[in-house]
Description:
This protein is mainly alpha-helical. The protein contains 20 helices and no strands. It is 72% helix and 0% strand. The longest helix has 36 residues, at 271-306.
Amino acid sequence: MSPLLVASLLIGYFLILIVIAWYTSRGATSDSFFTGNKQSPWYLVAFGMIGTSLSGVTFISIPGSVLNEGMAYYQVVLGYILGYLVIAKVLMPMYYRLNLVSIYEFLNQRFGLFSYKTGAAFFILSRTLGSAMRLYLATVVLQLFLFDDLGVPYWVTSLTTVALIWVYTFKGGIRTIVYTDAFQTIFLVSAVIICTIVIANALGMDFGQLYKAIGNTTNEAGLSLNKMFFFDDANSKLFFPKQFFGGMFIAIAMTGLDQDLMQKNLSCKSIGEAQKNMYSFTAIIVIVNFLFLLLGGALYVYANQKGVSLPMSEAGKVITDQVFPTLAFSKFGTLAGVFFLLGIIASSYASADSALAALTTGFCIDFLNFHRRDEKQKQRYKLWVHIGFSLIFLFIILLMREIATKDLISLVLTVASYTYGPLLGLFFFGILSKRPIRDIWAPVVCILAPLVCLWISNHAADWFNGYNFGYEILIVNGLLTYFGMFLISKPGIGMQPQRREDTLHTTPVTDLNTEIIDTNLNPSRS
């Protein structure tokens, strides 16, 4: 595609986003920014969450990963299903019952101020790193296929990318993002389908024949590219139980304990609508991820049958993250190139814009005592926090340009395994146990747990007869945090801590565990 066409698509795309933002942010208040006034249509939330969950990393890295791992990633996706059910039946009813704006307020009500701030801080750390890494991928693609030809430096591309997100999210917040994410998800899903159809047509195959051809194609190690389930080697990172249960807890942690995605659910009118959203989202995400893997296999079948040279590293290895963009822009024609560009932009921006709003919400609610501010102060603080996180995104993107050395889907999930583990342990100790804790020690436990996990992971092959940890390290991380919380707990029934000035709600909660169980058994009460 010509740089002029690419530039025109970008300008038109962002003009539409800005128009949506203008329309949805009219009369917006701080409550609109944080909760969408609890009027978000559940079906828009469900559809828009696809774009937020998948991101540009999924859009490029998952198809690319098929060369080395076959369709093993689908084992993780199947684990997501159980994770999302736990979110819908356990976590979301609790959040609605307690009327939370920031989900980490639960930790304040259950344990105290130190646990609350620790949980909120781990979310900010994890989401900032993860979202910036996802956005980095979009800037690399734009730089490679547009701005390099125009002589634009990479830092200008990065600055422009972050600035555009800030422009259409700074006022409307979650109320705007529910609509912009749904709009962007249309292009993400369309891009996968259209690119797969283009490849199938180029090969003269229907989808059934294409899948069979993928199965008949192998990599250098002899692995069939459509192999989905791995049961033969317990030491492998692709071993089914590791992938499946790792996926389950990744879903619980990265969705159910993540302010970003839960903020959208909490903007629905009721718990019933929020649960319909979650069930619909689960069905769609399972289908869409299979389409990504099918597309990945199709890319390599096409390259194999047409004799296309794939992008290679200096070490002679295929650079899997560059396979999809390279073929889309150079081999599949203008239609596929256009939809690839729109898909990568949509997936990357849908993830980054909601993360920016969630980080702003989390910091304002959890660290700036927003309940004590008047509306004028709230708007001023929100503006500066929003700008601050945008600049942090920019810094991380520029840093990633210098240090990124592996496929990003693996890097993002590995970072999440270490940063979401403490949240997993904190929340589940609060839900499953009634014991109060010595709250001041909670930060120590949450810092030590991932460090111990890193130590164990680095020595696992020597200690456990060649065993290598995959995403299940998140489970170990959560269990260590849970055990650490038990060590700093004391006998008795966990009562709500004394009210602190940081706390938003005034409704007394004498036994959160009872309320959680009651809500799950009687969801209509929520």
